[in-house]
Amino acid sequence: MKLWSGRFGKETDALVNDFNASIQFDQRLYKEDITGSMAHAKMLGACGIISAEDTESIVKGLQSILEDVEAGKVEFTADNEDIHMNVETILTARIGDAGKRLHTGRSRNDQVAVDFRMYVRDQIPVIIGQLLELETVLCRQAKQYQNTVMPGYTHLQRAQPISFAQHLMAYANMFSRDITRLEDCAARMNECPLGSGALAGTTYPIDRWQTAKALGFDAPMSNSLDGVSDRDYALELMSALSVLMMHLSRFSEEVILWCSWEFKFIELDDAYSTGSSIMPQKKNPDVAELVRGKTGRVYGDLMSLLTTMKGIPLAYNKDMQEDKEPVFDAIDTVEMCIPVFSAMIDTMRVLPENMRRAAGRGFINATDCADYLTKKGMPFRDAYTVTGRLVAACTAQGKTLEDLTIDELKTSSELFDEDVYEAINLENCMALRASYGGPAVSETTRQIEAIEAFVAARNI
Ligand code: ARG
Predict the structure, then answer these.
(1) pLDDT of 12 over the 90 cut
(2) Cβ neighbours of residue 213 closer than 8 Å, sequence gap 6 or more
(3) Within a 10 A sphere around the Cβ of 63, how many other Cβ atoms?
């Protein structure tokens, strides 16, 4: 018999029973549901709404259910629809009438709002911890490759010399912002909806500050309709996770490119690569490809809940039961991706000679050649044109700028002197880019130290 069967004259249709149920996925919230109920029962007792004996019996009963669920001894059923009614039904079966007093002054809308919010809130530190580990891996790798010259790209065309450390630290900075986005979102969501009732609060003299505090929230939510209706915290989390996955996906794409024979800048460890069933020579970057692929899935989760929420009037509507699966999926996906991605980066073999060879082709010192002439007094725009012509001539002859003799250079401009070779030497071009944020070792050192301090401040 349903908890709400009083006003009904018939049993629920079997199809509706299954269609309506959410226990298949919301049983994941068992702990939050039970802790939420304990806090509610203690508050009811403290406010004199239920007796001390009933409070004690409810809390003990809930504790025993929690232990049994964790020991795998409890079976939930779709007949009781969701985790909230499953727990209440089991409680009443165990402790009798006191169990029936638990739901005084509260609703399931309340319960789902508080359970889900606690679950989401408590996953954020898990994800942040994984990102901090990834940042640590990036710093460790970057420290070894501060002098490793590689081509920096725009339009996937070789552009200017950078170091591999500079490239890695670009991602480290993105992940730092992902972490602070998650922290912001955690801080904003930490208000407690419990006590909103079905939508309109309650006539019982409840103490919402007590339950909020007991459940680790900063304060109760200010408006009861908002309390049971809002899912923006979940959307905010999924937005932050989508941006994070976008970063991981771009990084994955580069790992995939770098592993190809066309680049060969890195080689992944055998433990983090896979083979082909037919081509014996293949070593595939499946981990990076899957992270890139799963990014679409997390975006989809965000779109799914945004779309669910866009047209529903206040307050609770059953549509909102569709909130949990995408959020669980996004969290599970991210929590699966970050550690495997970190381990892949941690164990990859970097091939500096290949990066250097690639840097040597593609005229990535052309800007430096123009800057050389500019520093000798030629207006930059003229220096740019002179260098462009030199590049065209070199391209026609299959040469690099460094291959040109000083006489050949002087036919373009009298300003060229022997010191030009120093100025367009790739190691120098990289090392001298010491402007704030640039790839010079002094600057990558500063960046690495900043990220290390960021990680240490969150004491991993
Ligand atoms: N199972 C529901 C959900 O996940 C919560 C219960 C509220 N249901 C209701 N009919 N008032 O959203």
Answers:
(1) no
(2) none
(3) 12
Three-point CA angle 175, 181, 182, nearest 5°: 90
3-state secondary structure 21-60: CCHHHHHHHHHHHHHHHHHHHHHHHHCCCCCHHHHHHHHH
Task: Specify the residue for token string 């569709």.
Answer: 322
Protein residue with its CA nearest to atom 12 in ligand 1: 321
The DSSP element (H or E) to which 157 belongs, if any, is strand 157-163
Ligand 1 site, residue 168, Cβ cutoff 6 A: no
- HSE, CB side, 13 Å, CA atoms: give it for residue 314: 10
pLDDT tens, residue by residue, 116-158: 999 999 999 999 999 999 999 999 999 999 999 999 999 999 9
| C-beta separation of 192 from 37 below 8 A | no
Local confidence band at 460 (pLDDT 50, 70, 90 cut-offs): low
Q: Which of 5, 51, 260, 276 is catalytic?
A: 276
- As a residue count, the chain comes to 460
Cα–Cα distance list, 144 to 18, 95, 426 (Å): 57, 63, 19
Q: Which atom of ligand 1 is nearest to the CA of 22?
A: 1
Pair type for strands 349-350 and 266-267: antiparallel
Residue range 36-83, pLDDT digits in tens: 999 999 999 999 999 999 999 999 999 999 999 999 999 999 999 999
Cα atoms found within 13 Å of the Cα of residue 308, Cβ hemisphere only: 24
